[in-house]
Every structure is written in C-alpha cells, then in structure tokens.
Amino acid sequence: MINPDKQSRVEILSEQEVELALNRLASQVLENISDINNVLLLGIPTRGVQLAIVLAKELNKITGKNVSQGILDPTFHRDDLVRVGTRIAQSTDIPSSVEEREVVLVDDVIFTGRTIRASLEALQSWGRAKKVMLLTMIDRGHREVPIQPDFCGRIVPTSRSESIELRLREVDGEGGVFLRKIIE
User: Fold this and answer.
1) How do residues 38-89 score in pLDDT, each as one tens digit?
2) Is residue 171 exposed (0-12), middle (13-18) or buried (19+ Cβ within 10 Å)?
3) Direct distance between the N- and C-terminal alpha carbons of the chain, in angstroms, rounded to an integer
4) Phi/psi of residue 83, each to 5°?
C-alpha cells in the first residue's frame, strides 16, 4: 500500500459535478430500460456498493419507485488475484432472482475491465438476466479485456501509476472525484 503522504490529490469532479453526473446517469438508465420495476442494481465492492445506493435514491427521486439493489462480489472469480492482491470478500447479497431482470452492474471506476469480467462470471451463477448493463462513474482507460460501460459519468485518461478515488458525502463526509498521483 502506498503511503498517503507520498501522494498528491487533484479534484477531477466537484461534489456538485458528481451530483449532476448521477442525475444524468439515472436518466440514461431510465431511457434504456423497459420497466423500472424490473431493474436490479448490483453494486460491486467496494465503492460501487455505495454508488448503487446513491443511484437507487436518484432513480427513486425521478420515478417515485423503489429500485431493487444488492451486492455482487466477484473476488473469487478474478483471474488476476496474484497481481492485484486480495481483500476480504464482501458477501454477495442479491435480494431477488436475476432471472429475466434488467441488471445494472455499478462500479465507481473501470480500469482494466477484469473486475467487470469477473462480475459477469459471478452473476451467471445467480441465473440468466434479461439484460446486463454496466454503469461506472469514471472510465480511466487501460483496458485489458474488451469491456466498455453502457453508462459513464466521465472519461479521465490516466497513467498506470495514478489512481482515481470517488468520494460520496453519505459515506466519506465529502463528495467528489479525485486523481491521486504518486510523488517520487
């Protein structure tokens, strides 16, 4: 783990810009689904879980309907655990069957695409969804597999030595998207 004192933090999106992006993303999801009652948001740990909660609230504000949401942890389906290391797996919690549902996988940042590849594999063990879409707040590039988000808040080209951090007021006490640069 990198010492936070050896990093600089640059704001990419302010809290207000994150809120605008969430509103736009929620509207895009609504434009691409057939029935809000058939949608299932699945947050990918760690930050995608909180983002899915905030997105569900935004969809509720727009439609007046509660959207089903859950957690899909792809840790044990990854093909790169040796390279990225492991963390304590979060329990997958899917509140209802995925059969014939319109599933939106929610993650904060898409990078290599390997987390999403693993998530798709994990999702298959829960059934066959009618449709699976991907929503990310940030696309930072560097794909290693051919996976692209259906809905994306912002594309932010980065170097491999940089990282992106989504902060949500409900969880972190501040909001925004930050680029972390390692200081040599």
Assistant:
1) 999 999 998 999 999 999 999 999 999 999 999 999 987 767 655 555 556 6
2) middle
3) 15
4) -75, -45
At residue 92, the pLDDT reads: 80
- Tokens representing 53 are 């909660």
The domain locations on the chain are 16-158
72-76's contacts with Cβ under 8 Å and 24+ in sequence apart are 72/42, 72/43, 72/44, 72/105, 72/119, 72/122, 72/123, 72/126, 73/44, 73/45, 73/122, 74/44, 74/115, 74/118, 74/119, 74/121, 74/122, 75/45, 75/118, 76/122
- Specify whether the CB–CB gap between 65 and 39 falls below 8 A: no
Find out whether 118 and 80 touch, Cβ atoms under 8 Å: no
Q: Which amino acid is at 171?
A: V
Left if phi > 0, otherwise alpha if psi is -120 to 50, otherwise beta: which for 120? alpha
Neighbours of 100 (CB within 10 A): 11
CATH of domain 16-158: 3.40.50.2020
| Helix boundaries (H) for the chain | 15-31, 47-63, 81-84, 114-124, 169-172
| Rounded (to 5) percent helix, strand, coil in the chain | 35, 30, 40
What CA dihedral angle connects 75, 79, 82 and 88, to 10 degrees?
0
Q: What is the pTM of this model?
A: 0.90
